[in-house]
Amino acid sequence: MMTRLLILITSAAVALGAAGALAPRLAAAQVQLQPAQPAAGQPQPAQVQPAQPGLQNPTLQPAPGERAPRVTVLKRAPHSDRIESNGKGMALLFWAFALVTIGGALFVVTRRNLIAAVMGMVGSFMGIAAVYMMLYASFLSVIQMLVYAGAIMVLFVFVIMILNRPEDEPVAPSGRAGQILGGAAMLYLVGRLVMTLINVQAPESALAPPAPVTVPGTAIQHEWGSVKAVGTDLFGPGLFPFEAISILLLVAVVGAIAIARPLHEDPEPEGDAGAAP
Amino acid sequence: MSNILFDVGYEHFLVLAAVLFLIGVGGVLVRRNALIILMSVELMLNAANMTVLTFARMWGDISGHTFALMVIAVAAAEASVGLAIVVAVFRGRRNVDVDRLTTLRH
Amino acid sequence: MDISIKFWGLPLLAWIVLLPTIGATANLVFGRWLSRGAVYTIAIAAVAAAAGIAAYLVFGPLLTAFKQAPATAVIDQPVYTWIEVGKLKLDLVFRLDTLSAVMILIVTFVGLLIHIYSTGYMASDPRYAAFFGYLNLFMAAMLVLVLAGNMPVMFIGWEGVGLCSFLLIGFWYENESYATAGRKAFVVNRIGDFSFLLGMFLLFWATKDYTAGSNALDFRELAGNSQIQSTYVTSLWGGERLAAWAGIFLFIGACGKSAQIPLFVWLPDAMAGPTPVSALIHAATMVTAGVYMVVRLSFLYASSTTALAVVAAIGLVTSLAAAFMAFAQTDLKKVLAYSTVSQLGFMFVAAGTGNWVAAIFHLGTHAFFKACLFLGAGSVMHAMEHAGSHAPGDIMQMGGLRKRLPITRATFMVSCLAIAGIFPFAGFFSKDEILGGAWSVEPPGWPWWTGKVFWAGLLIAALGTAFYMWRLYFLVFGGEARSKPAGEAHESPPAMTGPLIVLAFLATIAGFIGLPHLKGVHPPAITHGLATWLEPVVSNEWNDPPPKEAKIAGGPESRLASDLAKKAPDAPCCCVPGDQAPGASAEGATTAKQCAQKPGAMCALSPTKHCVLEETSDGTTYLLMLIAFSIGGLGILLAWLFYARGPSKTVDRLVAGPLGPVYEASKHKLWFDEVYDQIIVRPFKIAARGLFEIVDRFVIDTVAVNGTAFVIGLFGRIARWVQNGQVQRYLVGIVIGAALVFLVAQWEHKATFEYEIDPSGNTVRLVADPGGGLSTLGKVEWDLDSDGRIDAVGPEITARRGDVGTVTMWIEDPISRKRISVTRVVIEKTPDSPEGSK
């Protein structure tokens, strides 16, 4: 019980802290973009100006033996890192949220108590939402919180309450050979993926904050990752998937009802584990 | 070493997503409770989402966000149907141990 | 001569073999649905047709050719190419020359008579059709043996007759001892066959280079090819010639087939078969195959006196031993069996003294009178059985049958006279030929008394032969009936007595084609018919390498006797028909002068060569004939004395007293069977049992069969792990597969580096790529201008263009601690480009 409470509070605090850290930047971004709208005729994306001087182009002649250096800028202006995902503070936040995410995931995978697992899942989702924020995916971050942590996890909790039965033994007793083989494969995959992904070299332009999204056919620009930007894409090129998703959701609802309802409509008393029709 | 620690770049997000994904895979493989398995699947989907969003950020392509939104919607649909199945199974068997769901073996 | 007489596309000689085969197939396959009449009609018709074709060929084309030129009296009919591998080319070729002509006439004619006899003898047997089928099959195999043109085809027939012998001896296989007798015959024959094969292989090995492209082991090649002739006398092993070893091996094979010591033990047991079988196979045909083979290979045996001595010695010992064993036998057929063995010994002594003609002569006469004896015995046993006897072959229960079975008795007596060597029956002449030849043979390199020893031994054997045969006669037909069945027996039907009469008649007159050569008497040529007839195919001269001093005074060696006669008229000359005049007769000439008088005859190559058969004077010949006749008479007299009135009390007294051990030895057949059992059969059975336990039980059953099942089960258990119905197990498979995909896709990716020349041309960027597999990015060092010194360190460097030439990168993998170097030419350094300034 106490464990669960602790996890809940920690993750909530972290999430709030993240939101708090990032919110000023969002506000600033909104404010920043508005003066650019009248300049509709210019197709070129307007840079977010205050960021420009902060950037330094990376040198072409680094000292031998060093990696290409990242652009390191230390600004002393207030809300200094509201725009860039750079700097040591951001790094710290990243690691913190990463820890929360991984920790929650591990909880899910190792806990015997289902409710503990669900709590871990929720914490993980919150961490993921924070990480999404760091990736300038603000809309999706909120959607993550609302849909995943808010709806799907609640659904899980409902079902857990219906089942109301702890698991006998968390780990499947598969044979030694399978464990060894599977474990080896997993370790290798982890190593391989990590090594591959570590060496991903981003293009130079990707170090800067992303450019705003232009509504096609107009000169209106929205901040990258915002609701409007995502909406521009969703109801533009992504219209067909959107409609298809709605049908999918309809099918899912109908299917869930069809599967989960009892087979025969006999009015039996509530003697079993309260299976909801 | 300090570079990895203090200079957070795209690879960090990608690695985080990969690790999350593999934890999800581990959960699917190892756990016996159907609900935990479903939750692990959700973890994997989230990891995929994170990867997509990282690359969207990298290339400045907003359609990645649309994709991720679709993934979330699909995950929700799948979770609901999956939970409905779990409920139906539980009704018949009084437990949700996937190791006992072996009637398709022969 | 190649006569292409074909009938329906097959050579006529092939039809001689084919007809009995067809008859056998018909009777064996369809026999159960055919009536008895149909069965014996098919069988007899097949043999009669074969006999007819044989007679036609022999007395038609062959005789015509012989009259014109004896050396060309050969009908050669290949059927098809049987084997063609490397140096070995074998045709299935049937050849009818004068020797095989004699044999096929005997075989088909006696065979026909026995087929007719069997219709009566086996009339009440349920497996009538099988019997006739086997008989026909035997005829086919024997004809293949006799008509064969090369040794492997002869071996086909050789084995075929062995098989039929087994089938026919064990014909009444419901009786365990009869079946065992059949097996014994086959196994002992097989031992002989093995030796035959060794001899054949030895011959092939020695002659294969000379017959490449044509028939291997063809008799004509082996006999006529002079290169091959010279290989026979080459020394092989132990100081003996090739011909000696080959001859001895082949002769051991003949011992097995013709029941000589040490492989004769099957023949007395073979009396378990029906009497026609004994008559046909074990008197007239199969057992003579060994003699035929030796005579056929006369050229080989004439090349080695050692081989001949072995043949003759074993023949002599066998004839003596078999005669000894026959004294105490009380079974009618067993006495005849030992008699056969003994007479075969006679034939082998004849062959062993180079007297090929006498061997064949005795073979023929023996076929007639022995077949007659066996059929007569069959008639007696048939009569006894029908009269209710339970041991129809026991001669002690017979007696006085001369009154009850007159025809049988008459033919039996004629045959006994023939076998004892009484003038004018056939056995007298043939035996006398053998004795005469033995007396006068002088193999080069052997003591002068060699032939005399053989002669003396044969004489004792002849005495014994006469004695025990007439003992048999008197005990069976003489005296008074000693048991009730003997008193009530009645004569056999004409189907059985007919052949008896025919054979007895032949036994009477057949001797007159082989009279001895008497210089003073000139009977019609037919009396020397056999010798003349066989002359082209047997080897009349010793095959010795010509001695070094073989020169005729006055010039090169001349084969024309006339030349030689001028120079040295009394020089010994082995006179043979010459090649230019193959029809010449060279009989009777031993000196060059005499040979010169024969038109077209030649002296053999070396003047120091001897003819195999020396001439004897007339006086010697008459004396020898007289001695042989009197010995025969003496034997009959002794038998009459002791047994004329039935079993003799004198003999019983002698046997109980001083002659007891001798009698026991004779009765127990010199304990050959017992000795063989201890030495060979028992150890073999123990070895077989041991092998069974080890190989069969352990290796095959436990290791191979059960082990295979176990391994398969093991793999099944492993494979079952993959599919147990649990989805999570399948997901593990997916994960493993994904890991493998990563692994495989990256494994080949070697470490390398990429370079990018900046568009402005001043700088070059080099990026290290650690490669796939399990490697990671470790320490990277660069050598930019191939000067051997490390210029830079780091996974990614940028250098000035002037510093860069051929770049070598070293990368050290922290996990595997391997240092890999990659060298690539980044910027070509032309000779006149300025060196990069550092």
Structure commentary:
The complex is a heterotrimer of chains A (277), B (106) and C (838). The relative contact order of chain A is 0.10. In chain A, strands 1-2 form a two-stranded antiparallel sheet. With 277 residues, chain A is mostly helical. In chain A, helix 1 runs parallel beside helix 3 (114-134), helix 2 (88-110) runs antiparallel to helix 3 (114-134) and helix 3 packs antiparallel against helix 4. Chain A has helices at 2-33, 88-110, 114-134, 138-163, 176-198, 227-234, 239-260; strands at 213-214, 221-222. The two termini of chain A are 31 Å apart. Chain B has helices spanning 2-6, 10-30, 34-59, 63-93. In chain B, helix 2 (10-30) runs antiparallel to helix 3 and helix 3 runs antiparallel to helix 4 (63-93). Chain B has a domain at 34-99. Among the domains of chain C are: 525-615, no CATH class; 752-836, Sandwich (Immunoglobulin-like). Chain A binds chain C through residues 60-62, 64-68, 172, 174-175, 177-178, 181-182, 184-186, 188-189, 191-192, 195, 199, and chain C through 721, 726, 728-729, 732, 735-736, 738-740, 742-743, 746, 758, 763, 774, 776-777, 791-799.
